[in-house]
Amino acid sequence: MPDGPIDLHTDVAHPARMYDYFLGGKDSYEADRSAAEQALRDFPSVRLTARTNREFMHHATKFLVGQGIRQFLDIGTGIPTEPNLHQVAQELAPESRVVYVDNDPIVYAHARALLVSTAQGRTAYVQAEAQDPAGILSSKELTDTLDLSKPVALSMMALLHFVPGDVYKIVDTLMGALAPGSYLAMSHVTTEFDDGADDPDGMARLLQVYIDRGIPVNPRNRDQVARFFDNLELLEPGVVVIHRWRNEGIEHPPSHDKRVSLYGAIGKKV
After folding, report:
1. Hey, which residues does 187 pair with through a beta bridge?
2. How confident is the model at residue 8 (pLDDT cuts 50, 70, 90)?
3. Confidence band, pLDDT 50/70/90 cuts, at residue 25
4. What is the pLDDT, as a whole number, of residue 1?
5. In a 10 Å sphere around its CB, with 0-12 CB exposed, 13-18 middle and 19+ buried, how is residue 14 labelled?
6. In a 10 Å sphere around its CB, with 0-12 CB exposed, 13-18 middle and 19+ buried, how is residue 265 labelled?
């Protein structure tokens, strides 16, 4: 991790701090809170979206532990909100090892909360950009913590729509370095449920709040999200709204899909 003082860039909104605000956290600044409140006015369901995404991360992690995964690479970690991924994994499999990656200096400032591992397992934190997959893979924190000759679950929750550039190449580079039997678990924002440009309840109105503050965001449709899994075995039920991924017995009306507007999926490298 970097040394020296940390510049938190508190004068500009950051998606990780806005997400923390939506989840009820306290690690935000005036610029973040102002942007978040505007987002709530334009898309009142954004708190539900954030909570549901967090629940999907928990659900996916438990599923992956059940598939025998004991190593996780979580990129786009965000500000620690308990239970964090390692807590979910290590509750079921104490020997689990987790590497967290984020580029937000405030996440680094709170990284100690991510490093409290069980005695049998291990956690580490890498301060890095998602656009530098080679740097992530070669970081000492990762190579000291994960054995890439054995399966790893790559977790990228609500991240890639914020990442500029060729995100498919980023995912291919990361998955290409992982052993057969590894998994990709991800969620991604979509505007596919919007009713048009002037939809008062549409996700596009929320995304415009980010764009207006200089935060790039690129929603994708189901086919574009499925493309991330082109070289993987896409597990059933495929690319679905996150609250519908293997949540048997839990009923959600169709209107709930629009309120969440995040696709999720898990694929396996064979």
Report:
1. 157, 264
2. low
3. confident
4. 46
5. buried
6. buried
